[in-house]
Amino acid sequence: MRENYIYALPVNLYATGRTGAGKTSLGNSLLASPVEAPIMETHGYMDCTRAVQYVALKSNLRYYDLPGIGSDENLENINRAALCIPQIDDHSMGVVPIEEITILDFSNPPHVKPILVKDHNPTLAHWQAPANQLYVGPDIILYVVAPHGQFIREDRSYLSALLKAQQLHSQNNKVIFALNLYHHPDGTLKPTPQEIEDVQRHLTQIYQRFYNTIPPIVEIDALRGTGLHQMTELMCQILPAEKIGNIQQVLKAELKQIAYQERSRRYRQLLIQIASRLATYPVDTSIGKGLLREAYAAICDYSIRVFNLRNQGAKETTEMSALVERLARETKRAREQAIKVKVKDVEEQEVTSDEVVKYEPKIEEVEVTEQRPEYYTETVLVKRSGTSRFLTTLSEIAAVGVTSPIWLAQMAGTALGLRSDKKMMADNIIDDFNPDFYKKEKVAQVRTKIITRIEERFMGLKEMREKITRKVPVVVETEQEVGKKYLQGGYKVVENVLAIGLGMEKLDSASDFSIGFEEAFQAGVQQVGALLSDHQEQINQLSENEGPDIAEAKIRVILEKALI
């Protein structure tokens, strides 16, 4: 089913607002008609739109003109049902929720009676089903307000319900507020400045309850067509890229330039869709003359139609065909990979190991300390005995010639211990300080001497190692090529698709073909390389290792960030 979504889904424009605000007139002013007549009917009186008026235009664009609000609740319920807003239910007033939606198809020329659409079976349940909303749900809601009619409580209640319902389906705002400024026959504005200001204030207050942005409000004159340029710009800003077709084909001539400015972005979006899709297919996928050749040729053909490059001659056509053929071959060759299997084999390999070859004694020098006794002699002073001291004293007296008998008697008394105790104590003190009462003697002494010496000790055996290299048989696995396979397109396909597309876009600025297809392609290659070179490996990994849907989505994100 992936092949069914390569082109954009429908673009759905819905017009809503109070009855008589100018919804149908806006559609007729905005959209081009093949003849000078309005696309949709309007009668100029209240409740003129009693069904959902539907117009299918070129480029898969659809315009839905809804019944008005604020006058007939049963008609308003059609409006609410079409936009998935809760309906009004008041049996006492004869207001009953609808179960089917009536759709009138105005796609045929204006002189042909509109067709009542039945084949879609638009029951309410079917219409509002999520799967169906993918195709009929609004991409843009043009909320038309006539300021001269004021913006009363019913309008404010409806707008709150509309924004709440839309916010349930999308976080992005889809509503554009079109203030349709009616004029008097003399050309003066019908609404007063105060009425315009009041409406803008109410719209802003209600809008900002749901979105933290400035509401897109534009002043228009649906009958005269003024203000439509600004509205077209807002539409291009709101429309999602993946759902935009060639909108310039359905707008009136004066609005085409605005859409033209968006053409490059939309064109690149389609290139991204194709490139991200093809990147997930194996390059040898067989479609027609080959997937790659068909895809590259289709891009060239599509680009020629988009940029109206139909004036190329036979030379240019041949050059383009040769380029397509060459790129298809080169892409296939670049994504070719050998199929290899592992086989076992025995081979001799040198193995080096660190081995012990001998042992040697391990001797270490250690410092040893020991204590030894040491004997020596020392001369000291020793007190003499009492007799010895007496004899020494006598000899000294004799030496000096002392002969006094009294003194001798005293000395004798002292020697014989006849002194009093007090006198003896004093004499002893004197004796202690008298060197004559000491003698020198040699005394033997002992002391400890510490001796330090170095000696060798055996500390065990020391391993002596050497690097030994031997050849040993080893079982090894080797790869042997047995065939070839083709990988997914990956970055190479992305590069070629975008380079072709961007090159053709370059040709649009040189429509006289002053540059050839090959030169334009090479310029595209350089442009793609500058944008995507950092993502080359990532794109290849995604295309080879992820499932196709996941890979396509992730590659598309990468390309959109780089190119859009």
Q: What's this entry about, in short?
A:
By secondary structure, the chain is α/β, with parallel strands linked by helices.
Molecular structure report:
The protein folds into three domains: 10-251, Rossmann fold; 273-335 and 487-563, no CATH class; 340-486, no CATH class. It is built from 17 helices and ten strands. The two termini are 26 Å apart. The radius of gyration is 57 Å and the shape is elongated. It is of the alpha/beta class. The chain has an eight-stranded mixed sheet with strand order 5-4-2-3-1-6-7-8, with helices on both faces. It has a two-stranded antiparallel ribbon with strand order 9-10. The longest helix has 23 residues, at 256-278. The chain has helices spanning 23-30, 73-82, 124-128, 130-136, 153-169, 193-207, 228-238, 256-278, 291-306, 314-334, 386-400, 405-415, 421-432, 490-508, 517-532, 536-545, 548-563; strands at 11-17, 52-57, 61-65, 103-105, 115-116, 140-145, 175-180, 217-220, 336-383, 438-486. Helix 16 runs antiparallel to helix 17 (548-563).
Salient structural properties:
alpha/beta, 3 domains, Rossmann fold, single chain, 564 residues, disordered N terminus, 8-stranded mixed beta sheet, 41% helix
Describe how the helices and strands are arranged:
Blueprint: E1 11-17, H1 23-30, E2 52-57, E3 61-65, H2 73-82, E4 103-105, E5 115-116, H3 124-128, H4 130-136, E6 140-145, H5 153-169, E7 175-180, H6 193-207, E8 217-220, H7 228-238, H8 256-278, H9 291-306, H10 314-334, E9 336-383, H11 386-400, H12 405-415, H13 421-432, E10 438-486, H14 490-508, H15 517-532, H16 536-545, H17 548-563
Parallel strand pairs: 1-3, 1-6, 2-4, 6-7, 7-8
Antiparallel strand pairs: 2-3, 4-5, 9-10
Helix pairs in contact: 5-6, 8-9, 8-14, 8-17, 9-10, 9-14, 14-15, 16-17
